[in-house]
Amino acid sequence: MRVNDDRKDREFLFPDEDEHSRMKKRSSVKEKRRKKPLNYLKGLRAMLAILFFAPVLLYFVDFAGALPENVHGLLHLQLVPAALGGMIGIIVLMFALAFVFGRIYCSVICPAGILQDIINRVFCIKRKKQKGVMRFKYRKPMNMFRYALLTLTVASALFGATTLLLKLDPYSNFGRIASNLFRPLVMWGNNAAFHALEALDNHSLYPVTVKTVTTAGWAAAAIALLTFIAMTIWRGRLFCNSLCPVGAVLSIVSRYSLFRISFDAERCNSCGSCERSCKAEAVDSKRMKVDTSLCVLCFNCTSTCPKASLKYRFAPAFPLAQPELNVAEASHTKGTVNSTTSSRRKFFATGATIAATLPMISSLARKHQEAAATSTVAFDSTKDAVDYNNLGPVTPPGSMDLERFKDKCTACHICITRCPTQVLRPAGLEYGFDYMLRPHCAFVSSYCNYDCTVCSEVCPSHAIGGLSIEEKHTTQVGIATFNLNRCVVYTNETDCGACAEHCPTRAVHMVHYKGILTIPQVEPELCIGCGGCESICPVRPLRAIVVVAHKTHVKVAAPEEEEVEKIENNEFAF
Fold it and tell me: In whole numbers, what is the pLDDT of the chain averaged over residues?
């Protein structure tokens, strides 16, 4: 009882003691927050990344066509598609941004880089709460490995083997993830919401079918996503600084960037928080150095530094003028001057190499375009048998040539997701390893719309060249070939004619066969290979009429329009 009396006496004598301690703690927290500088650059970078990433992601998963078509303009800013498409202006712009600001491309424009930032945020949030900041540390760049891999990738691409580039390109990997994983999830969510709303007598949604995801596409997307997750959790932006060809190219330029993050030695207390928060592992807090070839400008280091000793400022790697030095200073800085001179030589040598490589890529693209324009394919129109085991891929209209298409397509799958009829699907190994994951026209349950050119409009690498509607009508990607031995008119002696009804150019038409039966006949000079006949053919599993692909697309005459006789009837009639 005496203890309780003493506690009451103390509360009576010092009624505001607990409140005073709480106020003191609050003031100390506010003081710490006041001392910590606001990082506007990190917020600006995050806002720009969202403005780039959100429309691109929504454009890939938009199955209803709700977004405007001009959103695909953001895809043309990606470096690898721009290089393969010969868009020198975009390449020069990205190199200029890297030279002036650093690797801002990797943290703002590249969707795969932003996806890794999201993964880092989601999977490492628990560790961040426990230890205050992310636990990374500085590691020397793997220059020998990443530049050797870059050399191998560029050399193989110049010789026409773009398979390695296809596997490593960050944008294309993101495209495969978005189109084969994220898009089906959105479509299944739509179907679940449709059934839920239908039970409530609400018909505002409609069910959709996932047709474009193949086993090869799903596996490639899953491997890419798991690789991003594993490498991000282990060492942050390890993919960007070891495997990514875009990161390797930009690192050569960004090491000489005019603006960069640098230390203020007078402010730094060597706490190491900046190094532990750098997901690119570019900050060496002991030596007070930031490796700009690794830095992706996320500004985590500047936001976690308690003394604001790290600043993003104008600090060129090689100053335009060197101050005069005395003998002692000259002997002390001899190595520095030599290293600066060497850096200049490396920079100009690198620039010359890149400048020499771009015309080679453009000339390679023009070479394939000229070959596609002048080549022709011989076709035996009298042959009515099809070798179903040796059918080549029907490439999209506008791709012009099979070899050109394989050289320029990075299998980002944006054409697959935007195809209104879902006729484009990623290939597996049925057409060989060098065509794997690239789109082809699969006339299983759909066909290429006669008046559609969406795929040629959205392709960022121009692997599918721009076609007008009129050009699409006269581009022959293949020829429908009829196999009499499989047609139900021949085998079952029953009427059909579905293929002729679905031919937009009347290349497939019915002719007299037996009695009142008619049978299909193909006019090769009118066929454009749209697959309308093959997709509707009722014969399973192998169709009686299939499109045999051209390795090089050819031009055919436009079908003549039928003249409709105008009948005037002045009498009232039903």
Answer: 83
